[in-house]
Design a protein that fits this description.
The chain has 15 helices and 26 strands. Strand 5 and strand 6 form a beta hairpin. The chain is globular and about 85 Å long.
Length: about 575
């Protein structure tokens, strides 16, 4: 909508930005409260897959030969610069995608048994879906996922080793994508290659390996197409479990308790774009504020008014600290004390000041990440654009983010007398009251200033807060039991508990396939470094642990009768 000289007010903002959100059809519903159940953090038993008679994971993926093989495999894949850019065109039109052909050739060379025994479909040119049919079609498939793409490198000269050299120093393998997400990619392929190299091994349960190619740009072309393809093939709610990258890995506390922290939900996401069109002119006679100055006031206003944190009882992060208080009460004694007292307000404050990762698991984040303006040093800019990235906490919503932006910019719109077009034709818009009696909008110089400014607000990549995946029941028990078996150690215990993910993964495109969506890269904290920045690397011993886990997870799900179709006609063509 276009509103001249407009103040934009989000009605009932307080009720929009508080509560807990869930998915209901295509819309996000914000609730005033949630069911207050007492989470006890009871742990199901460890699950040993050895009854299938296959070699143990530790015997296959622990010695020097296994390490050399994984370094060879992983370095081959990391050396291929499979970058996805924000401004990529469509596959087949933008030649920058063509490097993915090289990646696919490498997959075929490195994993011959996967390519011999699994069906391979390409989806939207570079998306890959590998499938091996199980002998029991009544069992819902197991779906394993990763993404092929990596983020760009800003300046290769700042790296210790060239970012696509895949240098191995005896412990770490360095390179863009070595951690995010080619660690998972190599690990999943390697576990499947080992299983499929045994001609006598035929799975009871079908297995799907789905590989998107633009996750770093929201996954629209890759996982977005793959999700629709799989739903057409098998139908909704047709998959037993989806495992993708993410989560918080493995955290050792007190040398005797190892916490496995898969993400059982994701925050929402929306990017808000502000574009200002304003009068220019020669810089020798400038306005009191140039367009960049006006936009800087918007940035300052937003950064001076961050979102407020809120901890919800029964949420994943709350349950994580319930487990920590139970099994490692002395690791954070003040958190344990506040939990036991039930003082959510004080606990919220404690967590919000602990560190940034903890703060933003209970708070909507806003980050001004994009700013362009100006074409000449002696010309006032006529067009300025900023982008504000939001990751939306469960108590908030896309419409609440829009409402907050409108509320924050109101005094600056008034000050400069701007005309505003706000989120025209978009979904998830808040109710807005229009107030056209804003005064004359002057900046109070001695003479009249007409900025003739128009501010256009739009949004992109609107993603609702993901629903919480189950952390009890037979499917979770297999997942949890496998984690406990794979990472068991003498004198200690392994505690799997769900967490929240501040970023987003390709799973946003797979939510119709199952309720059991777990985002977890099985890597110890401190053994991977610098994803998305300089000197990204992965400890290859930690990588071997991940391969062992994937190998055991496939075996345990294959041995279990859980997650069967209610009737055979429910199963799509496998």
């Amino acid at each position: 909508m276009i509103v001249p000289k407009l103040a934009l007010i989000a009605s009932a903002l307080a009720t929009v930005t508080r509560g807990r959100s869930i998915l209901q059809g295509e819309t996000q519903v914000v609730l005033e409260g949630v069911e207050q159940t007492d989470f006890k953090c009871d742990i199901p038993p460890a699950l040993d897959p050895s009854k299938d008679g296959l070699p143990a994971a530790r015997d296959l993926f622990s010695d020097d030969e296994a390490l050399k093989l994984q370094v060879k495999r992983h370095s081959t894949i990391v050396k291929i610069p499979s970058i996805s850019y924000d401004d990529n065109g469509e596959p087949g039109e933008d030649p920058r995608w063509n490097v993915f052909y090289d990646l696919h050739k490498a997959f075929a060379a490195l994993y011959p048994n996967v390519h011999l025994r699994m069906g391979r479909e390409t989806v939207n040119t570079f998306g890959l879906v590998y499938t091996i049919k199980g002998t029991e079609p009544a069992l819902k498939p197991l779906m394993l996922t990763a993404h092929q793409d990596v983020v760009p490198v800003a300046d290769a000269s700042t790296w210790k080793y060239p970012p696509f050299s895949a240098h191995f120093d005896g412990r770490y393998l360095w390179g863009r994508g070595a951690s995010d997400d080619k660690n998972s990619l190599t690990g999943l392929f390697s576990a499947l290659e080992t299983l499929l190299s045994n001609p006598l091994w035929v799975p009871r349960r079908s297995i799907i390996l789905a590989l998107g190619f633009d996750e770093e740009c929201s996954g629209r072309r890759g996982a977005g197409y793959i999700g629709r393809y799989l739903e057409q093939q098998y139908g909704p709610s047709s998959v037993a479990l989806i495992l993708d990258e993410g989560g918080m890995g493995l955290q050792l506390l007190g040398n005797d308790t190892l916490y496995a922290l898969p993400a059982v939900m994701e925050k929402g996401h929306v990017d808000i774009w502000l574009e200002l069109y304003v009068n220019g002119g020669h810089s020798s006679t400038p306005f009191p504020h140039t367009g960049i100055g006006i936009m800087s006031e918007f940035v300052n206003q937003l950064e001076s008014n961050p979102w407020k944190p809120k901890l919800i009882k029964g949420s994943p992060i709350y349950n994580h600290f319930v487990c920590q208080a139970k099994y490692s009460p002395d690791a954070a004694p003040n958190i344990t004390k506040l939990l036991n007292k039930g003082d959510l307000e004080a606990l919220t404050e404690e967590l919000a000041t602990l560190d940034r990762p903890t703060q933003y698991r209970i708070q909507t984040s806003q980050a001004v990440d994009y700013f362009i303006g100006g074409v000449k040093i002696n010309a006032m800019p006529e067009y300025i654009k900023i982008g504000v990235n939001h990751r939306i906490a469960p108590q908030d919503s896309v419409s609440a983010v829009k409402a907050n932006i409108l509320q924050q910019i109101k005094p600056i719109v008034k000050k400069f007398g701007l005309t505003v077009s706000a989120f025209k034709g978009e979904d998830h818009n808040p109710d807005i009251n229009l107030d056209e009696n804003m005064g004359d909008g002057t900046v109070d110089p001695m003479y009249e200033v007409d900025y003739n400014g128009t501010l256009v607000l739009t949004s992109s990549q609107a993603t609702l807060v993901a629903p919480i995946s189950p952390t009890s029941g037979p499917i979770w028990d297999i997942f949890s039991g496998t984690i406990q078996h794979s990472f068991a150690f003498d004198g200690g215990s392994v505690v799997p508990v769900g967490e929240l993910m501040t970023g987003n993964t390709d799973t946003r495109h797979y939510l119709n396939l199952t309720r059991h969506v777990y985002r977890w890269t099985p890597t110890r904290q401190g053994h991977t470094a610098n994803a998305h920045t300089v000197d990204e690397r992965i400890d290859m011993q930690a990588h071997l642990e991940a391969v062992r886990f994937y190998y055991d997870l496939i075996r345990n799900f294959d041995a279990s009768p859980v997650a069967a179709f209610e009737k055979e006609s429910d199963a799509g063509e496998l």
